[in-house]
Amino acid sequence: MKHRTVFICQGCGTRSPKWLGRCPGCGEWNTLIEEVDEERSPAAESAFAPAEPLRYSDIKETESQRIELDNQEFNKVLGGGAVLGSLVLIGGEPGIGKSTLLLQASRDFAARDRRVLYVSGEESLAQIKLRGDRLGVGDGALYLLAETNLERIVAQAEKVRPQVLVLDSIQSVYSSKLSSSPGTISQVREVANQIFRFAKTNQVPAFLIGHITKEGSLAGPKSLEHIVDVVLLFEGERDHSYRILRALKNRFGPVSEMAIFEMGGAGLQAIPNPSAFFLKERPTDEPGSVVVSTIKGSRPLLAEIQALVSSTLFVGSPRRMTIGLDHFRTSMLLAVVEKKLGFGFGGEDIYLNVAGGVTIDEPAADLAVVLAVVSSLKNRPIPSRTAVFGEVGLSGEVRSVGQPLARLKEAASLGFERVVVPQGNLVQLEKGETPSLEVLAVRDVRQAFKLIF
Ligand code: TYD
Ligand code: MG
C-alpha cells in the first residue's frame, strides 16, 4: 500500500505537500520533516467503527479496568494500576534505569500469568537476559523481541497477543511508512500512533520508553505528550542511587504523584518512607535549615529547605538562586521578609535549595522559605524537631493550606515534636485526631518569627 506523506515543520507544525528548505510558517531552515498523512488516509478512518453519541447514563462503568502492578509505588504513580488500552510514556535520561524498571514490572506481570511482550530496539536478547538474571526473572510468560521495525513489531504483537506491551525505546524504532530516520519527530509520532492503536484495539496497556535530553524535554515529542494517556518522568542524579518516578500527565489519575526508588545490585527497590530518606542527612542545629511538611501527589512528604544568605561580591545586583522552588514566588517571599520583618537583603546573595533534589511547587512551603532565610541571615538555627507549613500572603499573613492533618501526622511519625501551622488550619485540626505533638498556630510572619527565634 502506498502511503501519502506530508511535510511538517518540527518547530511550528506548518504542513506542506512537498519538502521546503525554509518553513513558510516560522521562517526556520531545515525543519520540515516527512510524516504519514493520517488525516487523509482512509485506513486511519476505517480503523475504528464510526462513533455515535451515547446518553451519559447509558455509558458503562469503566473503572476497575486496570491491572495492578506488584510494585506498589509504581502502581500508585499510575493512579492505581495500568489501565487497559492505555499508552504510558516513561521518559528519562539514558542510564537512569528505565529498562530496569520496566523489565522488573514485566517480570511481575509474567509471574502472575500475564503474557508480556517486551520489545527492545536497543539491546540484544542476550543483553536483556543478562539484566533479567540480576532481576530474578522467572519462567513466566515473558516474551522478548529484539526488533527496530515498527510494522514487524506490530505483526509480532498481533501473533503473541500480549496482555502487556513494552517498547524500549521509542527513539530506536522506525516505521517503513516514512523515509525519515528513527528518533525524528515524525518517526516518534508515527510509532506512538501505531502502538496507541494497538493498545486501544487489543485493550492492553502499552509502555513506551523515551529518552530525554539533559534539558528535560522528551526528545522531539512535545507532540507525543498529547497522544499518550500517561507521561511519567524517571529522574535522579547520576551519582546518587535514588530515583524519582513522577507523573507529568495522567488521564486516569492524579499528577504530581511520585515514588522513590533506590538502584541497587538487584535492580530498583521502592523506598516506602521518603520523608525519612530525604531527612537522613539533615544537619542538626544548622542555621538556614527548615523542615517543611509538604504534600506530593496524595502523600505528605517532609523535605528540608535550606537557605544561605551571604554578603555579595556583586554589589548592586546580588544573586538570588533557587533550586527546587519557584523562583518568582521566592522573590515575592523575600520582599515580604524585607517589608514585614524589616530585614534588608540589598547586600546579600541568597541561595535556596530543597535538599535531595525534591521540587516543591505548593505555596504551603512559603513559611518554611521565610524562616529558612531569616534563620540563615540571623545565623540562628531553628529549634530541632520542629516542622512548619503555611502559605504566606503579601501582607505577611500566614494562610491556611490543604490537608493539615496529613501533614501533622507525617511530622509526628518521624519524631517531630513541634509544628508551626497557620491559625486558619486550627479549626480543621481540632476536628480531626491530632497526633501528640505541640501545634503552634500563627497568624502572620511576625508572630512566627517571634515564636521561633
Ligand atoms: P538501565 O535500566 O539500562 O537504564 P536506561 O534504560 O534508563 O538507560 O539501567 C542503567 C543503570 O543501572 C546501569 O548503569 C546499571 C545500573 N543497574 C544497577 O545498578 N543494578 C541493576 O540491578 C541493574 C539491572 C542496573
Ligand atoms: Mg534502556
Keywords for this entry:
single chain; 453 residues; Rossmann fold; Ribosomal Protein S5, domain 2; 3 domains; 7-stranded mixed sheet; 13 helices; globular; binds thymidine-5'-diphosphate; binds magnesium ion
The name of the CATH topology of the largest domain is Rossmann fold
Which CATH class of the largest domain is shown?
A: Alpha Beta
The CATH superfamily of the largest domain is known as P-loop containing nucleotide triphosphate hydrolases
Terminal residue distance: 76 Å
Low confidence ranges: none
Give me the side-by-side strand order of the main sheet: 8-7-9-10-6-11-12-13-14
Average pLDDT for all residues: 88
Number of strands: 23
Overview of this protein structure:
By secondary structure, this protein is of the alpha/beta class. It has three domains: 1-40; 65-271, P-loop containing nucleotide triphosphate hydrolases (Rossmann fold, 3-Layer(aba) Sandwich); 277-452, Ribosomal Protein S5, domain 2, CATH 3.30.230. The protein contains 13 helices and 23 strands. It has helices at 42-46, 72-77, 98-111, 125-135, 150-160, 185-202, 222-225, 274-279, 327-341, 366-378, 404-413, 426-431, 445-452; strands spanning 5-9, 15-16, 32-36, 66-67, 82-83, 87-92, 116-120, 142-146, 164-168, 206-211, 230-235, 242-250, 258-264, 267-270, 289-296, 299-311, 320-323, 348-354, 386-388, 391-392, 398-399, 418-422, 438-442. The strands form five sheets. A nine-stranded mixed β-sheet has the order 8-7-9-10-6-11-12-13-14, with helices on both faces. It has a seven-stranded mixed β-sheet with strand order 17-18-16-15-19-22-23. Strand 1 and strand 2 (15-16) form a beta hairpin. Helix 10 crosses helix 13 (445-452). The protein binds thymidine-5'-diphosphate (TYD) and magnesium ion. Thymidine-5'-diphosphate (TYD) is lined by residues 92, 94-100, 131, 134-135, 263, 265-267.
